[in-house]
Amino acid sequence: MSGRNDGRAFIGSFTSAGGRGIIAVTVDAETGALTEHGVTDALPDPSYLALAPDGSVLYAVSETEEGAAAAFRTPASGAGNGAPRLLGEPVPVCGSSPTHLTLTAGHLLTANYGSGSVTVLPVGPDGAPRPASGVTGHEGSGPHPDRQRGPHAHQVVTDPSGRWILTTDLGTDSVRISSLDATAGELTPHAETALRPGTGPRHLAFHPSGGHAYVLNELEPTLTLCRWDTEKGLLEPVGEAPVLPDGVDVEGFGSEVVVSHDGRFVWAAVRGHDSIVVLALDATYEKAELVTAVDCGGRWPRDLALDPTGGRLYAANEHSGDVTWFDVDPATGIPVRAGCFAAPAASCVVFG
């Protein structure tokens, strides 16, 4: 390890499937290699994680039927090895199977897949979430007979300005846009963008310019390219691109989408096909060409994360139980496998 320039990351996993909970790792600055320095199983199925801006508190959803969120104190920088420490008791999200969360304006927001809702949890001075101050239920359905019988909120994020809250709903083929009333601790609905029926939007990512967003669909292996109007808080679909090469006879289910720091490439993790797909954006940022698909290094890549330098991608391969990392060619955007870290039932990687 190169020492003081090394970074750190946290890996979430499904304890119900043999995962160890939350694994804290150091990240070698030169090679990207991961080394474990602490683990906690204090929260069942911590499938998705988010860090406070200063990195002192780590937040996690408990993707269980009951649904909960919790905060963990992270080891201080330079304090040596150690596991994140639970801050208080996990707090119910008043919804089932939360799959994603984000921290904004002193509140923790969770996307609850099972109940098709978004929950607002105020965050106390100690960094721990308090009981829910608001729950916004979605309505609607889609054409898929099994996966779209009702709403399924899958991701909740803020736009680059921090003004708007966007929620992808796999069950209703739409993205909902809200604002947060930080005083009341509630979301105020603003708009809803309909996507093509049956696509099943899962996650979205913004372009660094702030004027575009890319929605990765789970039920059809496609990427929906959108314009984003920050002033009006409106998302406008302008096209689609495939995320599987022609002639593939394997079902593919998109999981995570990432945009390069320079805004030239979009990467998508595709389960089933078990690949990381590279798409090149044109000068308008509204058209994407599939460059290639590379093996994800394992099976069922549930998450894909770009390290802070923008030079490496990390795939959390749930079914093979590992996190595999790749060096990215800056000219082509193509990831090249560089190493692997064992992490049973891995579901998420966050850096900070």
Task: Provide the fold topology.
Blueprint: E1 7-13, E2 22-27, E3 34-40, E4 49-51, E5 57-62, E6 68-73, E7 85-92, E8 98-104, E9 107-112, E10 117-122, E11 134-137, E12 153-158, E13 165-169, E14 174-181, E15 186-194, E16 201-206, E17 212-217, E18 222-229, E19 234-242, E20 253-259, E21 265-271, E22 275-281, E23 288-295, E24 301-306, E25 312-317, E26 322-328, E27 335-342, E28 346-351
Strand content: over 45%
Average pLDDT for all residues: 96
Ends distance: 17 Å
In order across it, which strands form the biggest sheet?
3-2-1-28
Shape, please? globular
Question: Based on DSSP secondary structure assignment, what is the total number of beta strands?
Answer: 28
Helix percent reads: under 10%
Structural class of the helices, strands and pairings? Answer: mainly beta
Instruction: Give the SSE order as H and E letters.
Output: EEEEEEEEEEEEEEEEEEEEEEEEEEEE
Largest sheet: 4 strands, antiparallel
Based on CA atoms alone, the radius of gyration comes out at: 19 Å
Low-confidence stretches: none
